[in-house]
Design goal:
Shape: globular
Structural class: alpha/beta
Low-confidence stretches: 345-367
Number of helices: 9
Helix content: 10-25%
Distance between the termini: 30 Å
Strand content: 15-25%
Largest sheet: 10 strands, mixed
Bound molecules: glutamine
């Protein structure tokens, strides 16, 4: 609920009992030295929550308040006592759908018209949530990482600073080309909404993505930005990938990632990069989703002279499995290798499976209309 990528969305929980553990307090401040303890941003980001059975009595040693009181404090509506199974089945048939929560039981009122629903995908949600001013976290860190903030989850910042990086958080549309010499690597964060609203930022980054030899790593929206800058199209999926059990197959080895292995990942996205054959010159698919064959990662090819990669899933999870958490260590090892000339964990192409074989034998690919 605090992941900024959920901004504007009504979340329907499939687990029937929600709120049993209450909500922890996020006692560490979000400032230049820390990014909170457990929550992913300072407030609730989703537009509303739909729960089958909300727990009014909560119990956990870190709990500070109930789900309902937390929602009330943040002015976020919630509804309980509804058949979330029925709503989920509807969403599974027709895909992600505009919705609204209304109060009252007068069924004689006419059903709302299409234009009476607020459509968050029409807005540039990234611009609403991104930092307005640059700021630095852990300034004494040895590796200087710039992070373009499309709506970054706090655990991405934690995962970088825990590994010793100094992170400068920049607004999403900042002209990074002009300041890139000051940094050892660039990170592109996750973020809410339709990535094509950020096309200008993607195109602005092209000189860096084409000329810079230092590492660039993108997650989710960040991965979509890299892909759009590389010339791939982004499309809206009928069924976005959400949840903590999305299997992805690695098509190439790099750092801790081994080609041919399936990793279980945490995901939250409605858009994806469109698979095309051939891939743009100098780029290759990195991961593919085992359920729907959508692209889950791309990377620059070994002969491109660049060191850029992005993943559609969330290696930092929070919540979810930690199968791919070492991708943060890989990123910083690459940055250190570039800066100090040390040797990072290297790509082992010999373990690779045939990419085209994997793509061909995979299930049907969902393509945008
Ligand atoms: N978690 C994210 O960064 C989501 C990216 C994008 N907003 C999508 O829905 O596809």
């Amino acid at each position: 609920m605090t992941d900024p990528s959920y901004r504007g969305q009504i979340l329907v929980f499939t687990t029937p009992l929600i709120g049993n553990y209450g909500v922890p307090s996020n006692t560490a401040p979000f400032d230049a030295h820390d990014v909170g303890v457990v929550l992913e941003s300072q407030g609730i980001q989703c537009a509303a929550v739909v729960v089958s059975d909300v727990a009014e009595r909560f119990s956990h040693y870190t709990a500070a308040e109930s789900l309902a009181s937390w929602c009330q404090r943040h002015d976020i509506p919630g509804i309980t006592g509804v058949d979330t199974r029925a709503i989920t089945r509807l969403l599974r048939d027709q895909g992600t759908t505009l919705g609204r929560i209304t109060v009252g039981s007068d069924t004689s009122l006419p059903a709302p018209k299409a234009d009476e629903f607020w459509d968050p995908s029409l807005e540039n949600l990234v611009d609403q949530i991104s930092t307005k001013e640059p700021y630095e976290i852990n300034p004494s860190g040895s590796l200087k990482i710039a992070l373009l903030d499309f709506g970054a989850k706090a655990n991405i910042l934690r995962s970088l600073i825990r590994r010793g990086a100094a992170v400068t958080v920049l607004p999403w549309n900042y002209d990074f080309n002009a300041v890139r010499d000051q940094y050892d690597g660039l990170f592109l964060s996750n973020g809410p909404g339709d990535p094509t609203h950020c096309m200008e930022a993607a195109l602005k980054l092209r000189p860096t993505l084409e000329e810079w030899s230092k590492p660039v790593f993108g997650i989710c929206m960040g991965h979509q930005i890299i892909g759009m800058a590389a010339g791939l199209d982004a499309y809206r999926m009928t069924f976005g990938n959400r949840g903590h059990n999305q299997p992805v197959l690695a098509l190439a080895s790099s750092g801790s990632i081994k080609a041919g292995r399936v990793y279980v990942t945490s995901q939250n996205h409605q858009y994806a990069l469109k698979l095309q054959d051939p891939f743009p010159r100098g780029w290759e698919p990195f991961f593919i989703n085992c359920n729907d064959s959508s692209i889950e990662g791309i990377k620059s090819t070994a002969d491109s002279g660049r060191n850029v990669w992005g993943v559609q899933f969330h290696p930092e999870s929070a919540g979810g499995p930690l199968d791919t958490i070492e991708m943060f260590s890989d990123f910083l090892a690459e940055c250190a290798a570039h800066k100090y000339g040390t040797v990072p964990l290297k790509t082992d192409e010999t373990q690779g499976v045939s990419k085209m074989q994997t793509l061909e034998s995979a299930p049907k690919i969902e393509v945008a209309a």
